[in-house]
Amino acid sequence: EGGLRESMERLEERLAKSIIGNPFVISRVFNAPRDLVFKVWTEPEHFEHWFGPKGCKVRVAGFEFKPGGAVHTCMTTPDGHSMWGRLIYREIAEPERIVYVTTFSDEKGGLTRHPLSATWPLEMLTTVTMEDQGGKTKLTVEWVPLGSTDEELSTFLGAMDGMSGGWTGTFEQLDAYLAELPKGGDHGH
Predict the structure, then answer these.
(1) Distances (CA, A) of 64 to 7, 91, 100, 172, 181
(2) Integer Cα distance of 189 and 180 in angstroms
(3) CA 149 → CA 11, 16, 131, 143, distances in Å?
(4) Using an 8 Å Cβ cutoff, are 36 and 178 in contact?
């Protein structure tokens, strides 16, 4: 049963990528070893210090780092608006790859629409890859909508600049956070 589920998920991923043709992709090289970048991406005590667009605060309400596990967060914007999100891990290949499905949610973790865009895709497939570059790490995020309507796909394709700005701000926060940590990854908070 597990093998069939994995096969169906891989088929769904391929279909999503072939339907959209051009996923959203953004990369950045971080001046930190890959093991440390992987650690701050996958441990809640690090995650809430850097994740999210610049100026937003993220609180982790639940964090289960394993295939099928969920992360539940609340992001608060500078003007005090709160948005809940959830991700469910599909694949974890430490320290080079993490695949998960991202959705907006309510406080209980139930699936909801984007609070600011009724036509945003309900589910997004997120693939994070981390490549070792001699003590530095090239991190790439790829996003594709899953099971989207034509209208949702159109909204996604029209939002590339906004996604780029959001992820750039997130990467800037990650870069600053990594610079505060000892290169061995010990956490001093």
Answers:
(1) 23, 13, 12, 25, 23
(2) 10
(3) 18, 11, 33, 16
(4) yes
* Phi then psi dihedrals of residue 105, to 5 deg: -145, 175
Instruction: Map tokens 């997130």 to a residue.
Output: 170
pTM score, two decimals?
Answer: 0.84
Spatial distance between the Cα atoms of 43 and 105, rounded to a whole number of angstroms: 21
pLDDT-derived band at 189, boundaries 50, 70, 90:
very low
Q: For 3-7, 118-122, 172-176, which range has the lowest pLDDT when averaged over its residues?
A: 3-7
Q: How far apart are the C-alpha atoms of 182 and 172, rounded to whole Å? A: 18
Q: How confident is the model at residue 17 (pLDDT cuts 50, 70, 90)?
A: low
